[in-house]
């Protein structure tokens, strides 16, 4: 009987303890700012709220941050007003991308049409909708990327500088296009310029010359072998 009474008291104590708020109240918190962190909505005005508390946060990545799989940023800074030092130095920077395949070139064309075609035109002739043969809102025609002698011989690095920092009436496209995308667009533009066709023709001629030379060498080798065999039979 005594044992039964003790067991009953213990069961009753457990039931009372389990129904109380003791279990729901944590003990001492070592890091309260982590335990009770404040949640912020993505597009809420958290910047002003944090600034009042002395926390400066602008949602921007740390300077020098490079997205995974992205190319290194352009090594030349923007020239000061009236200075063209880096603009000229950009001529020595080659396009780091290998030749684009058909799918990549199609994407480069799409990027060009979306970002550049409105000024320079779908045919790269400078007659985009904003100029429209002189009937558009632009009074001056944008650069003709295929016929302008200055642009046609301009190296890829110098064009990249202009696209990155802006040139004349054209603003910077660094925020619209990633580093890789800018190089892709430039490769697309260079592929449409007359110089690219000449280079392609020269490469084709050299390839044909190489095949012709190899064929002649093979014929000479076969002839020499035939002569040697006939001499041996004699």
Features:
mainly alpha, Cytochrome Bc1 Complex, Chain D, domain 2, 234 residues, 10 helices, 51% helix
Can you describe what's shown?
It is elongated and about 110 Å long. It is mainly alpha-helical. 51% of the residues lie in helices and 0% in strands. Helix 5 crosses helix 9 (179-192) and helix 8 (156-165) packs across helix 9. It has a domain at 85-195: Cytochrome Bc1 Complex, Chain D, domain 2. The longest helix has 40 residues, at 194-233.
Describe the SSE topology:
Elements: H1 2-19, H2 32-35, H3 46-52, H4 85-89, H5 102-115, H6 117-120, H7 149-152, H8 156-165, H9 179-192, H10 194-233
Let me know the number of strands: 0
Helix and strand element order: HHHHHHHHHH
Say what the CATH topology of the domain at 85-195 is.
Answer: Cytochrome Bc1 Complex, Chain D, domain 2
Note poorly predicted spans. Answer: 198-215
Please name the fourth-level CATH homologous superfamily of the domain at 85-195.
Cytochrome c-like domain
Structural class: mainly alpha
Largest sheet: none
**Rg estimate, integer Å:** 36 Å
Principal-axis shape equals elongated
What CATH first level of the domain at 85-195 would be assigned?
Mainly Alpha
Beta-strand content bin = under 5%
Arithmetic mean pLDDT: 79
Percent of residues in helical segments?
40-55%
Number of helices: 10
What is the CATH architecture assignment of the domain at 85-195?
A: Orthogonal Bundle
C-alpha end-to-end distance? 130 Å
Sum this structure up briefly.
With 234 residues, the chain is an all-alpha fold.
